[in-house]
Design brief:
It is a single chain. By secondary structure, the chain is of the alpha+beta class. It is about 15% helix and about 30% strand. The strands form 2 sheets. Strands 3, 4, 5, 6, 7, 8, 9, 10, 11 and 12 form a 10-stranded mixed β-sheet that branches. Strand 10 and strand 11 form a beta hairpin. About 15% of the residues have low confidence.
Length: about 230
């Protein structure tokens, strides 16, 4: 049995992962639950982990995996609920247990830096590699990683210096956070919106304006499916 605060926190984490592809920060959790300090969030997280509802992944900031949900949130009476956490794709069918391969780390190439701010030059080649938990990967297509440069996506939980995990795709839906290649010269990480023949690249920071392009000037290079932060 969960307390109301524990249930509220679990629901908030689930909604943010489904919406943004990454769990909320402790500050965001504190604000959402109207708590005075982050120590209260630490206690709630520990309680949820002890009761088997979440799992914290070692050596990964914000790496919270939802293991199961209570029946009041649509979970099964047993512990069969195991969604892909830190995954930007919303599942099309009820979640099933992760394959064995998803339990292990995968080496992904870091293809340089991606701008979350003023666009930088297009990404060309891998600079090094990074170990990524298997559950970050969607299982569809190739994946790669990029280091974030800039602060235009901070309200989506993406900070300067973070490493984002990207699934290669040329197709995106409105609201997806994508790697957009502008005029084959500049790459940027933004929220994608399409209206008729116009593509909008929206920042998640009020200090940055939404940029508009005709659809022939923008190519989607991939979609955000995960995030890694180190301190």
């Amino acid at each position: 049995m969960l307390t109301k605060k524990q249930l509220d926190l679990l629901e908030f984490i689930q909604k943010r992962v489904q919406r943004d592809g990454v769990p909320p920060s402790f500050d965001e959790m504190k604000e959402a639950l109207d708590l005075r300090s982050k120590s209260g969030i630490h206690r709630l997280i520990t309680a949820l982990e002890e009761r088997g509802f979440i799992r914290r992944l070692a050596h990964r900031a914000r790496a919270i995996e939802i293991v199961k949900l209570p029946e009041s949130m649509g979970g099964a009476p047993t512990s069969g609920f195991a969604p892909r956490v830190i995954d930007g794709d919303r599942p099309d069918s009820p979640a099933t247990a992760l394959p064995v391969a998803a339990m292990y780390a995968t080496e992904l190439p870091v293809m340089g830096r991606i701008a979350a701010g003023v666009p930088i030059e297009a990404i060309q080649q891998a600079s090094h590699s990074v170990a990524v938990p298997g559950q970050m990967l969607s299982g569809k297509g190739e994946h790669y990683a990029l280091e974030v440069k800039g602060d235009s996506m901070i309200e989506a939980g993406i900070n300067d210096g973070d490493v984002v995990v990207i699934r290669e795709t040329s197709v995106a839906e409105n609201g997806d956070i994508v790697v957009a290649l502008i005029e084959d010269q500049e790459a940027t990480l933004k929220r994608y919106m399409k209206r008729g023949n116009t593509i909008l690249l929206e920042a998640a920071n009020p200090a940055y304006e939404t940029r508009e392009f005709s659809d022939d000037r923008v190519k989607v290079q991939g979609k955000l499916v995960g995030l890694i932060r180190t301190y």
